[in-house]
Amino acid sequence: MQPTGNLHIGNYLGALKQWVKIQYDYEAIFCIVDMHAITVYQPPDELRRKIREVAALYLAAGIDPRQSTIMVQSSVPAHAELAWMLTCVTPFGWLGRMTQFKAKAAEQETVGDGLFQYPVLMAADILLYQAAIVPVGEDQAQHLELTRDIAQRFNSLYGPTFVVPETRLPVVGARIMGLDDPQKKMSKSAPGSGHAVALLDPPDLIRRKIMRATTDSAPGVDFDVLGPGVANLLTIFQAFTEWTDEQMRTHFSGMRYSELKKQVADAVIEHLRPLQERYREIVSDPGYVDRVLLDGAARVTPIARATIELVKQRMGLYTVEVPAPAATAS
Ligand code: AMP
């Protein structure tokens, strides 16, 4: 995740919640991508603070640092190194087609080259660790397709080098929409106080935001004709509670929107409460997050170096094993 803005329930339901679950089935690496964040100007002090806040939120959500690795992208220089090598095998046209680039570029007065290269750096984040599975929300599916294309192109040019990763989307919650505008993806950068529920929002604010969410003029929930706002509220509820489709239908059919919103707010508040409590505990130990992050970087560096050495050899870049000095006769 990028350490920008406030992490919201879309980030949680699309990515973080499934990360917590799968960490016991795989050897998992969770990265905080600060070098992606600087593709758009970030005030330095704010960025420094956000990196630690996101790390603390990963921990508070249940990523276990004894089981999994949490690290910051810029603390392992091999991410940038591999990104350059991959840039050189990525056709310009592939990047121009990225919808996230087009959307983000439209918001900027000046579009930096980094914004264009963003998906190549993301491919490097993944391929550097020979990742088999990448659990993300739906908005990242196109970048994952590109990562697969880059890996395959590299492998066919230079011989088998990279594992071609698979995208893993959650069954429910892969795309949470804005509360104020259910046609738009819930996003950290969208303006408006009623757009997103942040993971650290206090309960009364969460309730106010959900009670003000956009619905439609129908009298109550009808699963045969769900408007986007109501569908989004139901998705949020189902993704948090993990109720089955049948439970959802039985419970919510015909329910008035004010009652639906109240129940969604209750569920969100109840599920975020333990996360918020753990967050406060974690940040009360000032050195803890940095210890986890430094340990994470140290753990993954050998994996990253091995990939870089392999890529350098494959591409013919300068690698050398210095022979031992010849013994001299005395
Ligand atoms: P980012 O906000 O780009 O740092 O995204 C971090 C993770 O959250 C990625 O895996 C995204 O796919 C996921 N994500 C972001 N917004 C949403 C959303 N509205 N619904 C579901 N997943 C999301």
Describe the structure.
- The protein folds into two domains: 9-169 and 287-315, HUPs (Rossmann fold, 3-Layer(aba) Sandwich); 203-283, Tyrosyl-Transfer RNA Synthetase.
- The model has no long low-confidence stretch (mean pLDDT 96).
- α8 (141-158) links the parallel β3 and β4.
- It is elongated and about 95 Å long.
- The chain has 13 helices and four strands.
- The longest helix is centred in the C-terminal third of the chain and has 28 residues, at 288-315.
- It starts with 8 loop residues before the first helix and ends in a 15-residue tail after the last helix.
- It has helices spanning 9-22, 34-37, 44-61, 78-87, 92-96, 99-107, 113-127, 141-158, 203-211, 228-241, 245-252, 257-283, 288-315, and strands at residues 29-32, 69-72, 133-135, 166-168.
- It is mainly alpha-helical and 330 residues long.
- The strands form two sheets. It has a two-stranded parallel sheet with strand order 1-2. A two-stranded parallel sheet has the order 3-4.
- The chain binds adenosine monophosphate (AMP).
- Residues 1-2, 10-11, 13-15, 136-137, 139-140, 174-176, 185-186, 188 line the site of adenosine monophosphate.
What integer value in Å does the Rg equal?
22 Å
Give the spatial strand order of the biggest sheet: 1-2
Number of domains: 2
Bound molecules: adenosine monophosphate
Low-pLDDT residue intervals, each spanning 5 or more residues: none
Helix content: 40-55%
Sequence of secondary-structure elements: HEHHEHHHHEHEHHHHH
Shape: elongated
Please work out how many helical segments DSSP would assign.
13
Give the termini separation: 61 Å
